Amino acid sequence: MTTPSQWGQPRTSLFTDHYELTMLQAALHSGAAHRASVFEAFARRLPDGRRYGVVGGTGRFLEGLAEFRFGAQELDFLAHNKVVNDETLSWLADFKFSGNVYGYAEGELYFPNSPILTIESTFAQACILETYVLSVLNHDSAIASAASRMIMAAGSRPCIEMGSRRTHEESAVAASRAAVIAGFHSTSNLECGLRYGVLTQGTAAHSFTLLHDSEEEAFRAQVQSMGASTTLLVDTYDVEAAVRKAVEIAGPDLGGVRLDSGDLLAQAHDVRALLDSLGNVNTRITVTSDLDEFAIAALAAAPVDSYGVGTSLVTGSGAPTASMVYKLVSRKGTDGEFRPVAKAAKNKTSVGGKKYALRRLNPRGIATAELVGIGALPENDGNDRPLVHQFMTNGELVPGWTGQAGVQRATARHAASLAEMPGAARRLQRGDPVIPTEYLQSTPAHD
Amino acid sequence: MTTPSQWGQPRTSLFTDHYELTMLQAALHSGAAHRASVFEAFARRLPDGRRYGVVGGTGRFLEGLAEFRFGAQELDFLAHNKVVNDETLSWLADFKFSGNVYGYAEGELYFPNSPILTIESTFAQACILETYVLSVLNHDSAIASAASRMIMAAGSRPCIEMGSRRTHEESAVAASRAAVIAGFHSTSNLECGLRYGVLTQGTAAHSFTLLHDSEEEAFRAQVQSMGASTTLLVDTYDVEAAVRKAVEIAGPDLGGVRLDSGDLLAQAHDVRALLDSLGNVNTRITVTSDLDEFAIAALAAAPVDSYGVGTSLVTGSGAPTASMVYKLVSRKGTDGEFRPVAKAAKNKTSVGGKKYALRRLNPRGIATAELVGIGALPENDGNDRPLVHQFMTNGELVPGWTGQAGVQRATARHAASLAEMPGAARRLQRGDPVIPTEYLQSTPAHD
């Protein structure tokens, strides 16, 4: 596995809103900065009409947390621009996160108010992580949630992530990673291949055909150089003529053809019939061109072998960000006792206190509810699956959640969690969350 | 100015789709890789109903192009995973872009088919830049385009970019930069402050109030530590009580109060009246809470002094990506002559050849059309403003377009270009592009 510093990831400490550090300064002044505190990342709602969300980014956050330090360049910037005072600068110079991190496994499904990530530390330590926690989780979860629906729509046919050009270059790497966690077979993004060991794949672009004096010349170059198992792009000029030429040049072992425009449904049928009539029964058909989960579902009856998905994957298919928030839910008072806290403003109620969460499963192993509570875990009747894991203990990473192994584990977790869901989870139509979130108020709200 | 390598930006060369490198391999095999080629980035359409687009990302692309090299780690990855063959690996090992780059100034307005970025080089060199060019331009232009509408809606009131937590941590930096280019006054993103020298700002979060035993204690800590000119968040519990307390603690010099929930219109009126009645006529009111250009416009008559904009800015307010494409438009043939090329597939027509572009201005300096043509510039009647600049000459950067100076120049360019637009550009309602794109077919399509 490679690590963020090996691929040159910059410090992560300034991926932070100005006010996190000024709040730190004011809290250091009042002394409250050192109060033991519990912050929780959760979503009050799913994107409009979605049946479930998928946790993405936990591994990336844990990797980046190790780099969350304030070196000379960062401190100079903060000092020169008078963002914070000297007392705060020296606190930051010594900062290394030393608290506990708990949360849902990456790849797990989540629902409204699921306690997705919990940070237990001092106010000072937990406060300054807010922006970074949310940037990573909100982006990656939005992509993973959209990707999961595409995978369901695609059934057993593989999906290839191809959206890098439609999003920021670093988002593209994270989006590829999130797509693979949700079940994508591979990605076109080479940097994601390097960082996370995921399979990369590609075909060819129209420019490659246009570069050559004829489509035939282009196909011949590609087949000679890449082998007959390559995938040829057949819609630059005339699809039927291109398919005939492709088969003539590559022979019966031609790996695949790609269709990137026009009426994909009709074309897939025509091209399949043509390929079969030419004896190329094993040549696969890949379709691309602004696919989303609905377009994929609409192609279910077409003879398509794989889907390349771009724009709508990396933009979250209508929900480009998850709406997770990061709230102080519990902190010690002057009496040394933890107490839950919550603001009173309209329409933004939070439930205070550190939470546990369980997925209630019926005797057939099908999920029926998301149980969230404060305090001690209730008696387990054997069918409740605990959802909260510990990722970091006193600043030390619990192994297995990061890097390439973390991605593989998250992929497995996602598949298993999805398999537990009732059938309604597979409906693409708008609706309510597929299972309700229920609060258990069994024990008093102490930690 | 700091440079990408100083802030630890990773190599940019693998922000690339797999197929760019396999096309390179096949083109090296056929020999066509070395054909002089012109690629162009443009958008066939604006996001649905938008009146104009704003070019963002040009400076970032030029900064990253300098880092677009293939070192040992990248080459090892490509070799180990058999992405390309040895001939291609040695070509990549020697790669340093040595062509020309032309395009619209960053901050400039664009319209359907404006030639936003043109790369003139060999096919090999220009092809492998495709994904990176588009990632940067599509993301940053989407944000700049949305930000520009927010600025228009805000009129003379400053907008503060606060969306970092709603997008990938690196997108957040680029989004802040794009927002500032479009006219945002400042950002909450510290990393953007460090890299591009833009002003950072912040207030306080609800957690800061909840941390303390009372709102009064929290306000007192913030005012004592940050000074009376700070902005206090007044909607954690009861707004009226909080404003009274804030004034009591900070006195007549209290800088501002922030409202983050509820009916912002009614609250702004109430809070302004209360502040004035307490003698705090200079205390500013900042509003936040899921603002977009429409919500900002709806607050035009409210006594609001500044807007904090988050989610809808960093997600492009409904258009999270610009739909720019990067197409081979012209290349030399075996006869050594340049010829325009374009694919024939349905609904995706491109016009071949290297382009110029002019903004036609009427005698009062108001834009009336976007003129795009192939070949020699037409006679200028004195009212046409040339839009295409040269950014790189034989691989050497033309100074002035990158870093902090590049951001300042782009900000000025955007303001000047917007001032040229007819009044309809300021309409937030859906409509056609505010000026038409016209093709001039004056000269034959040679370069």
From TrEMBL, chains A, B:
PANTHER family: NICOTINATE PHOSPHORIBOSYLTRANSFERASE, NICOTINATE PHOSPHORIBOSYLTRANSFERASE PNCB1. Transiently phosphorylated on a His residue during the reaction cycle. Phosphorylation strongly increases the affinity for substrates and increases the rate of nicotinate D-ribonucleotide production. Dephosphorylation regenerates the low-affinity form of the enzyme, leading to product release. The keyword Glycosyltransferase applies. Pathway: Cofactor biosynthesis; NAD(+) biosynthesis; nicotinate D-ribonucleotide from nicotinate: step 1/1. GO terms for molecular function: glycosyltransferase activity; nicotinate phosphoribosyltransferase activity. The keyword Zinc does not apply. Its EC number is 6.3.4.21. It comes from Arthrobacter cryoconiti. It is an enzyme of class 6 (ligase). Belongs to the NAPRTase family. Residues 14-138 form the Nicotinate phosphoribosyltransferase N-terminal domain. This is Nicotinate phosphoribosyltransferase. Catalyzes the first step in the biosynthesis of NAD from nicotinic acid, the ATP-dependent synthesis of beta-nicotinate D-ribonucleotide from nicotinate and 5-phospho-D-ribose 1-phosphate. It catalyses: 5-phospho-alpha-D-ribose 1-diphosphate + nicotinate + ATP + H2O = nicotinate beta-D-ribonucleotide + ADP + phosphate + diphosphate. Keywords: Glycosyltransferase, Ligase, Phosphoprotein, Pyridine nucleotide biosynthesis, Transferase. InterPro entries: Aldolase_TIM, NAPRTase_N, Nic_PRibTrfase-Fam, Nic_PRibTrfase_pncB, Nicotinate_pribotase-like_C. Pfam families: NAPRTase_N.
